[in-house]
Amino acid sequence: MNFPKATIEGYPRIGANRELKRALESYWADRIDADTFRSTTHSLRVDTYNHLRDLGLTEDYAIPADVAYYDQVLETALTVGLIPGGTDLDEEFALARGNDTRVPLEMTKWFDTNYHYLVPEVAAGQEITPAPERILRLVEEAREAGHVVRPALVGPVTLLALSKPVEFSLLDALTDAYAEILAALKGAGVEWVQLAEPALVADLSTTDEELAGYLEQAWSKLLAIDTAERPNLYLTTPYGATRKALSVLGALEPEALHVDLSPWTLDSDADYPKRVADTIGPKVQLVAGIIDGRNVWAANLRERTEVLEVLRAGGREVAVSTSTSLQHVPHTLNAEKNLPIDVANWLSFADEKIAEIQALVAGEEAAQEAFARSDRAVRTRTESDHIHNSAVADRVAQLPAGEVKRAPEFAERKRIQGEALGLPDLPTTTIGSFPQTTEIRKARADHKSGALTDAEYTEALKKEIKGVIEMQEEIGLDVLVHGEPERNDMVQYFAELLDGFVATENGWVQSYGSRCTRPPIVFGDVSRPEPMTVEWAKYAQSLSDKPVKGMLTGPVTILAWSFKRDDVPLSVSADQIALALADEVSDLEAAGIKVIQIDEPALRELLPLRADERPAYLDWAVRAFRLVALEAQPETQIHTHLCYSEFGQIIDAVAGLDADVTSIEAARSKMELLEDIDETFHSEIGPGVWDIHSPRVPSTEEMVELIRAALANVPTDRLWVNPDCGLKTRGYAEVEPSLKNLVAARDEVAAGL
Ligand code: GLN
Ligand code: ZN
């Protein structure tokens, strides 16, 4: 059975009109029953298969059935039985979201993307009971609708590498479970199955050598099964280049092998196509993941063809696919009516990428029009003065090379700021946002639709800010915030106000479960036409004698949560965004703002998958942050905020940000992280004492305990008291009493100092 010539690794599951999101949320809210949920999602899957066939994926097995209600890792874990649950819908959602009796599985980032997967909890010696019905019914429903789809699961090595704890003693039993699933699929007449092993491209807690060993262990067993008893296996390695594993893959000879040859991957490993061509023998059907599955730029078809030619050496037939699932990009450009026309011509979302794949398969002769369009996009993009802004380029070029450092040193700044701000011991503050009430959302929607005038909208937001300031005064917090009611999202807000970005109308991408984001696109040199936050900050400050923090999202986070340029290094965009924010810092200072927070919750997210690429990343990321604060007056207290508790890999970088105050998530880990922190950190620090991810009111006593635990590692004159993160997802019913308890806890501890 031949592998299809043109295929994709996966397609957005959420639905062009976010049908899956609606179905999930309606089911969770009891607005629809399980049957309606199943029939709605069945229609969505079949519509998707029909749509993909209309787009030209007509060969048998060209369409992957990468189906999941909530998450692909959970889906695989339930199918192979690493997690018990079978086909029970409510059990599945309890694992994903928790219920009265169980806490949800932990969620974390899928490789270096903004998608979050659920982390399976495993135990040595546990039972593994496969549930093949989960996948058989997908094959069956597709067949009834006239499609021969390719079931797609996460592979055994990756599934264990991503579970908690990492327990490779389960690998043999797990491989047997996969074998059972494969046998069931063969029984149902399936000829090709896709198993993704992206763990092979990343330095996770398991080393590259160890992973190569596990790859050999599991896959030699699966491949040893006679093909009369199992489907052909399509092993995929999205998200980067394999290293040690490549020779094992060459020796294993799976029936088909996918490699990621996206520009993004070849940027850091230009030699990869050649290594693949040299290592993978002719018996293996090579599938070139040549179209970028995670960025939105139209492919340069000529350059992509050259890469394909490296694999085609010796006349070998190579199939063409995406580098990763298309789940990371929006469905289609057709849903965008308001993009600037030049920018629109440079873009390619999921559906447009499928056309690119077909053009590459057809070749230049047969697909002249597509190649001509690609040439035009490449040319106009290189020449565009919409992208290239010489004033910005000059300014970046004039920056000092290498390390930049704010003067004077922290100790001196601390003294100056101490006098200027006059804060009490253990000062209290919050991280920025206050609850995004239905009223705020409605005002924003009404403003967008024109039902509210600009002036009315501004009035509504001012009223909100006033209420938030009054509440904080009454509660007795020391450093106040304006509550961020004007921000739909901490990145999109800035992207909409900066030149060099465009926002989409319908470019929804699944973040986790039913949650979607609409990442902005950085398409050109970034600059700031006018101040972005100053009016709100000034208004908020006018309402109080206490310092009100100016709130900025940092350059690394703005970049991490956007689609990035592929024509300049990330560091260039980061420097440009940093300079725009630096101007905002001086404007805030000029408006009388004494404390400015620059949030960088995504600093760890952009960390490269390969350890040897991390130091260079951290260098430019830290530098970009420092550029924002470089010219700040010594009196201005610069805060930063990061929200995850595993700091291990980046703790030096966080210290290197050289902020005056760093607030971090710490409540859940009970301040454990502070043990590492004190040796590296010299600045002030606000480990969160309230876990805002959970919908409860923390008591004064528990926060007293956490503050005391923090004082065991942090000297009194450097400790702040604050929640773990912003409060936008909470309600006032929890926020008000929680903050009162937080201030009471500080008072109690401070009284005993
Ligand atoms: N200032 C932001 C807020 O409070 C920070 C959000 C975040 O860390 N993700 O909402
Ligand atoms: Zn946070």
Automatic annotation (TrEMBL):
* Keyword annotations from UniProtKB, A to Z: Amino-acid biosynthesis, Metal-binding, Methionine biosynthesis, Methyltransferase, Repeat, Transferase, Zinc
Question: How cofactor binds (record note)?
Answer: Binds 2 Zn(2+) ions per subunit.
Q: Which segments constitute the Cobalamin-independent methionine synthase MetE C-terminal/archaeal domain?
A: 426-745
Q: Where does L-homocysteine bind?
A: 431-433, 599
Q: Where does 5-methyltetrahydropteroyltri-L-glutamate bind?
A: 21, 114, 515-516, 561
Which InterPro entries does the entry mention?
Cbl-indep_Met_Synth_N, Cobalamin-indep_Met_synthase, Met_Synth_C/arc, UROD/MetE-like_sf
Q: Which SUPFAM superfamilies match?
A: UROD/MetE-like
What is an example of a Pfam family matching this protein?
A: Meth_synt_1
What is the superkingdom listed in this entry's lineage? Answer: Bacteria
Where in this chain does the record put each Cobalamin-independent methionine synthase MetE N-terminal domain? 6-312
Question: Where's the active site on this chain?
Answer: 693
> Which annotated residues bind Zn(2+)?
641, 643, 665, 725
Q: Which family does it belong to?
A: Belongs to the vitamin-B12 independent methionine synthase family.
Write down the PANTHER family for this protein, in alphabetical order: 5-METHYLTETRAHYDROPTEROYLTRIGLUTAMATE--HOMOCYSTEINE METHYLTRANSFERASE (PTHR30519)
Q: What does this protein do?
A: Catalyzes the transfer of a methyl group from 5-methyltetrahydrofolate to homocysteine resulting in methionine formation.
Name of the protein in question: 5-methyltetrahydropteroyltriglutamate--homocysteine S-methyltransferase
Q: Which organism is it from?
A: Corynebacterium lipophiloflavum (strain ATCC 700352 / DSM 44291 / CCUG 37336 / JCM 10383 / DMMZ 1944)
Q: What is the lineage of its organism?
A: Bacteria, Bacillati, Actinomycetota, Actinomycetes, Mycobacteriales
Q: Which gene encodes it?
A: metE
